[in-house]
Amino acid sequence: MDPLNSYANMKSHVTPIPTPLIIRASSAVLVGAAIAVLTTDLTPGIKFGVTAAGLIITLLLAYLHPYRAKIRSFREQHNISRVPTTGQVMPLFVTWLMLMVAPFFSTAALWVTILVFVVVAGWTFLTFPHIDGSRQLAFAKTA
Q1: pLDDT score of 113 more than 80
Q2: DSSP category for residue 2
Q3: Which of 62, 97, 125, 132 has its Cα between 20 and 30 A from that of 17?
Q4: 4 in any annotated domain
């Protein structure tokens, strides 16, 4: 199997209801901050509070935005299951791993915190359409 053909095949499928840029960007910033704060020397209560708030606000933003209703309708019209796929769960595993590893860098230098923020925010921005299921809609006709 040629990886370039697989990549071209994947890119040829256009997402019918893309994740809004404001949702992707705000989720990336919130998740990046939620994990990066764990590398600081703040008290554990503040770290947990910021982390919990960032992740909860991310979920609320994503699932209360009107584009979710469009996705739900598209799923019903094309008989697409609401059960998460492996492609939706794997990026979350990487994020979870970063969440678990970040406390080991507690009291790290500021540049480490900034690096963690940039890496996590970038990862979240790139993978969010897969996590929220909007990218899965591009493959509805082939399913």
Answers
A1: yes
A2: -
A3: 97
A4: no
